[in-house]
């Protein structure tokens, strides 16, 4: 018998339960990937993320070929392409890694003539949707979810198959980004693929994660794993990432972050409406969001006049990635200081982030906009960019890396450069209002206005 393994965002051969199960039960296995225009050009279209995905596909194809097989690439609606592939190969079953996003679930429902078999592999635990509170419902608060999650059983990590059956169908090839009508919009992106993901994971487990608890928030030190894009596309399995962690405080803090990913997948599964609207009833349709285009442009371009906000936004433009602490600061600035609808920020992130992930991005945007699960009063999540810089970029190395106009600004003025006396501005080659913008808002006043908006 023949089975198709439908790869989606599990682009790896190690620890791949669907691939393993198909190989165990079938003589012939056809690994396949469908380029789906509804995703490539849909509301989360992204050149940088698609480029990364194409690199992942080439890497996966090479790994499958090394083992005697290869990746069949089709371009079209999977419900049609897979049905055709099944007819061409005589396949009766399709094995795949289960997913939680509303679109992934809907795509699956449209198949009828083929038997579909879902497998774990998307998250650290086998099935995030089945995790329940003591009352039997989904979680809305992170800490109790985390305590429960820690205790759940874990499956064995699987090795990569040694050999694969050869392919007897037209293979197709991985297109170039331009063939798909998309552009690479970031200058310095991460390279996609299981091979770079595995070497990053090995380095991280042996000498990165140890000091994670102490350093993960230090912007200049840049001491986080940068595994997010690899996790998003499944170049490494989250379960294997957890399994490779040594013992200690750093690894424990890191495990807690991995669990946020599972938590937001759980939340999106149970509350799919979150993808488009606020989780909290009292804020749904009641907050008067701003839609000021010019202010939004300045935020996107990193020209707000607040060094930490600008550094974060320019890191995003340059790398297609931003440090988590900076994501929080720019998110707070957009939604609280500028009062702009969080969905605009969410959309911009999805366009440029290589790790852009509907569940994580939406969950975090709702969190920082104070409208989502895991609620706290709005004033708790209004961040003062200057104070944040003092705590998380004390020597200014992060800001100076991404905002070259501020490189020569003396330390004591770097957090609030508009306070520089004119002669210091001249000396630093940074005249406020011409070399670097005036601050867009008065943070104190903006904070008061934000609190008013949330008083609904
Ligand atoms: P590490 O600190 O090394 O963490 C390891 C892994 O844990 C990450 O790769 C990620 O998979 C997971 N993780 C860590 N923090 C979070 C978190 N807060 N929520 C969910 N998972 C987490 N992460 C995404 O993967 N995709 C997104 O689209 C995304 N959008 C975000 C938007 C906003 C406004 C904010 C505040 C955060 C967002 N995050 C998103 C979460 C977080 O910023 C990134 O996961 C992290 O910065 C990735 O870098 P890293 O791999 O070095 O993280």
Give a structural overview.
46% of the residues lie in helices and 7% in strands. The protein has 456 residues and is α/β, with parallel strands linked by helices. Strands 3-2-1-4-5 form a five-stranded parallel sheet, with helices on both faces. Helix 6 crosses helix 11 (249-270). The protein is globular, with a radius of gyration of 23 Å.
Largest sheet: 5 strands, parallel
Can you tell me the CATH topology of the largest domain? DNA Cyclobutane Dipyrimidine Photolyase, subunit A, domain 3
Distance between the termini: 61 Å
Instruction: Write the CATH architecture name of the largest domain.
Output: Orthogonal Bundle
Structural class assignment: alpha/beta
Count up the domains: 3
Task: Give a count of the beta strands, DSSP E runs of length 2 or more.
Answer: 5
CATH homologous superfamily designation of the largest domain = DNA Cyclobutane Dipyrimidine Photolyase, subunit A, domain 3
Tell me the Rg in angstroms: 23 Å
């Amino acid at each position: 018998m023949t089975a198709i393994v439908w790869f989606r965002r599990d682009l790896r051969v190690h620890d791949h339960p669907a691939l393993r199960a198909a190989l165990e039960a079938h003589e012939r296995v056809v690994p396949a990937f469908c380029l789906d225009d509804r995703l490539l050009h849909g509301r989360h279209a992204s050149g940088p993320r698609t480029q990364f995905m194409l690199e992942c596909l080439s890497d996966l194809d090479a790994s499958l070929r090394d083992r005697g097989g290869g990746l069949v690439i089709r371009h079209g609606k999977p419900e049609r392409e897979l049905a055709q592939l099944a007819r061409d190969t005589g396949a009766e079953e399709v094995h795949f890694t289960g997913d939680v996003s509303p679109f992934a679930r809907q795509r699956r429902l449209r198949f009828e003539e083929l038997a579909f078999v879902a497998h774990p592999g998307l998250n650290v635990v086998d099935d995030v949707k089945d995790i329940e509170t003591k009352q039997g419902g989904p979680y809305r608060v992170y800490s109790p979810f985390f305590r429960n999650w820690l205790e759940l059983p874990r499956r064995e990590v699987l090795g990569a198959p040694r050999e694969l059956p050869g392919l007897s169908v037209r293979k197709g090839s991985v297109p170039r980004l331009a063939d798909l009508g998309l552009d690479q919009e970031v200058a310095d992106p991460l390279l996609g693929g299981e091979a770079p993901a595995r070497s990053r994971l090995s380095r991280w487990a042996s000498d990165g994660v140890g000091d994670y608890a102490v350093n993960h928030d230090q912007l200049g030190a840049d001491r986080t794993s940068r595994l997010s894009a690899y996790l998003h596309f499944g170049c490494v399995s989250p379960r294997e990432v957890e399994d490779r962690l040594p013992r200690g405080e750093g690894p424990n803090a890191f495990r807690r972050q991995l669990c946020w990913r599972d938590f937001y997948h759980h939340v999106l599964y149970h509350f799919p409406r979150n993808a488009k609207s606020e989780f909290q009833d009292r804020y749904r349709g009641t907050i008067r969001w701003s839609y000021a285009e010019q202010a939004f442009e300045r935020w996107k371009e990193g020209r707000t006049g607040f060094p930490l906000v600008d550094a974060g936004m320019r890191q995003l433009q340059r790398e297609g990635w931003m440090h988590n602490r900076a994501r929080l600061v720019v998110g707070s600035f957009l939604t609280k200081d500028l009062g702009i609808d969080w969905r605009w920020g969410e959309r911009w992130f999805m366009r440029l982030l290589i790790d852009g992930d509907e569940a994580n991005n939406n969950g975090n945007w709702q969190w920082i906009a104070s409208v989502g699960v895991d609620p706290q009063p709005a004033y708790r999540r209004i961040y003062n960019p200057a104070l944040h810089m003092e705590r998380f970029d004390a020597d200014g190395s992060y800001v100076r890396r991404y905002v070259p106009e501020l490189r020569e600004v003396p330390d004591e003025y770097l957090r609030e450069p508009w306070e520089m006396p004119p002669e210091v501005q001249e000396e630093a080659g940074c005249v406020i209002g011409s070399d670097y913008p005036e601050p867009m808002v008065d943070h104190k006043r903006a904070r008061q206005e934000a609190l008013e908006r949330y008083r609904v």
